[in-house]
């Protein structure tokens, strides 16, 4: 693919803020359908099979809150002179409290499950605006890729995310932090894609669905 | 957000008095509803209610001319943070003051400081980077960030507690433009 255009950096780019707004996680299901747009390098939709076989319905994700300013997505790309570049992607976040309910929720994906993760950052509106945006367009998906993947079924891609670590504890002093930092990551062979389909967050903010 | 308005300084602005007249504090509660106003000329909160009813606040009195509100903003990259601190002095370290401090220790709060200029400054209630689906789970609430007690040494020294309430938020503190009913009961006020 020839390079026909470079890249502009505008004032709005320089006002971009760090951190994440939502971290959504779901397990890959064998019947998941994913549509990639390789021209725009995004994902048009992620859907799951409905009760009626062959009929897709919105894919369901769990939204994981964290302590503010403690969650981040990191991407490390390396190329060793081959035709592909390796992208190691990891999202980590801090969960304060160390409660039984939190551990129960973490246990739901600690068994080596194949995961996909969507990170929605804080840049859906500019830093000067205050009202939360209704948009979740400023997002990145990891664990879902279309380069060097198993072409038969998206669910058999071996570039899914897994739980990499849970670190933390009670601390010792009364003023110490109590909680865990969770890291979920994947190895892909393309930059994380933007989810361009519809994202609908549910009323309590703890779940979302994706569709086209 | 582009600049669309400048600002005038009128004579009455120049007559504004310093200091704080009333301090109202309450714990964030399930059912709290906040109405934010965002426009080119207003950055405010027009109502704070709970479950469709008036929200109840508790009045913290203090020694006059000692409380103050300070706001320190700092921009790093595209994010501007506002560190807000309200300090006030409760004279005489007695049993009831200690109990008041205990109640402030481990709870997520919001604060209204009514200035002597008649303006109501809200701390711990902000919309920028808030939890959009659950106002209650907003993490920019106010906490008691410090308390200093002193008996003094000389007979004419102050004896009392200086309490600091603080929060970190990512927007300037808002003014409360709704209705505040002060002292609807002993040490209690309401907002609607």
Description:
The complex is a heterodimer of chains A (212) and B (192). Chain A is mainly beta and 212 residues long. Helix content of chain A is 6%, strand content 42%. Chain A has two helices and 13 strands. In chain A, the strands form two sheets. In chain A, strands 1, 2, 3, 4, 7, 8, 11, 12 and 13 form a nine-stranded mixed beta sheet that branches. In chain A, a hairpin with a 7-residue loop joins strand 5 (72-78) and strand 6. The model of chain A has no long low-confidence stretch (mean pLDDT 91). Chain B contains two helices and 13 strands, in the order αββββββαβββββββ. Chain B has helices spanning 11-14, 95-104, and strands at residues 20-27, 32-38, 43-50, 53-59, 68-76, 79-91, 109-115, 120-123, 143-150, 160-169, 174-176, 180-185, 188-191. The mean pLDDT of chain B is 95. Chain A binds chain B through residues 14-19, 21, 65, 67-68, 122, 126-132, 201-206, and chain B through 1, 36, 38, 43, 77-80, 126-134, 137, 139-140, 170-171.
Secondary structure layout plus pairing:
The complex is a heterodimer of chains A (212) and B (192).
Chain A (H helix, E strand, L loop, with lengths): L10 H4 L5 E8 L5 E5 L4 E8 L6 E9 L7 E7 L7 E11 L3 H8 L7 E7 L17 E4 L19 E8 L9 E10 L5 E2 L2 E4 L5 E5 L1
Parallel strand pairs in A: 3-11
Antiparallel strand pairs in A: 1-4, 1-7, 2-3, 3-4, 4-13, 5-6, 6-10, 7-8, 9-10, 12-13
Chain B lengths: L10 H4 L5 E8 L4 E7 L4 E8 L2 E7 L8 E9 L2 E13 L3 H10 L4 E7 L4 E4 L19 E8 L9 E10 L4 E3 L3 E6 L2 E4 L1
Parallel strand pairs in B: 3-11
Antiparallel strand pairs in B: 1-4, 1-7, 2-3, 3-4, 4-13, 5-6, 6-10, 7-8, 8-11, 9-10, 12-13
């Amino acid at each position: 693919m020839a390079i026909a255009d470079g890249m502009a950096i505008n004032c709005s780019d320089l006002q971009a803020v760090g951190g994440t707004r939502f971290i959504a996680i779901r397990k890959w299901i064998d019947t998941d359908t994913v549509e990639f747009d390789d021209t725009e390098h995004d994902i048009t939709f992620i859907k799951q099979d409905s009760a009626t076989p062959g009929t897709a319905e919105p894919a369901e994700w769990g939204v994981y809150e964290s302590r503010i300013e403690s969650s981040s997505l990191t991407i490390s790309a390396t190329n060793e002179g081959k035709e592909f570049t390796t992208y190691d992607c990891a999202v980590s976040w801090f969960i304060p409290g160390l409660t039984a309910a939190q551990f129960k929720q973490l246990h739901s994906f600690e068994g080596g499950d194949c995961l996909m993760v969507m990170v929605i950052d804080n840049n859906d509106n500019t830093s000067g605006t205050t009202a939360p945006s209704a948009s979740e367009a400023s997002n990145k998906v990891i664990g879902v890729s279309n380069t060097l993947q198993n072409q038969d079924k998206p669910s058999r891609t071996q570039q899914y995310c897994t739980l990499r670590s849970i670190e933390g504890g009670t601390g010792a002093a009364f003023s110490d932090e109590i909680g865990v930092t969770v890291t979920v990551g994947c190895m892909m062979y393309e930059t994380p894609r933007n989810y361009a389909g519809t994202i609908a967050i549910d009323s309590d903010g703890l779940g979302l669905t994706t569709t086209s | 957000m582009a600049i669309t308005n400048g600002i005038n300084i009128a004579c009455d602005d120049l007559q504004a008095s310093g200091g704080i007249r009333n301090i109202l504090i309450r714990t964030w509660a399930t059912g709290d509803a906040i109405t934010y106003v965002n426009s080119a000329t207003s950055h405010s909160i027009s109502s704070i209610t709970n479950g469709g009813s008036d929200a109840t606040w508790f009045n913290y009195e203090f020694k006059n001319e000692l409380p103050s509100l300070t706001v320190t903003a700092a921009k790093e990259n595209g994010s501007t943070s506002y560190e807000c601190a309200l300090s006030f002095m409760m004279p005489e370290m007695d049993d009831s003051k200690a109990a008041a401090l205990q109640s402030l220790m481990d709870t997520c709060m919001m604060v209204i400081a009514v200035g002597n200029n008649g303006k109501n400054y809200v701390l711990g209630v902000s919309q920028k980077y808030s939890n959009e689906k659950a106002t209650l789970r907003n993490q920019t609430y106010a906490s008691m960030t410090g308390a200093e007690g002193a008996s003094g040494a000389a007979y004419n020294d102050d004896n009392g507690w200086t309490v600091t309430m603080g929060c970190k938020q990512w927007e300037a503190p808002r003014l409360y433009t709704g209705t505040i009913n002060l002292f609807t009961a002993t040490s209690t006020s309401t907002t609607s």
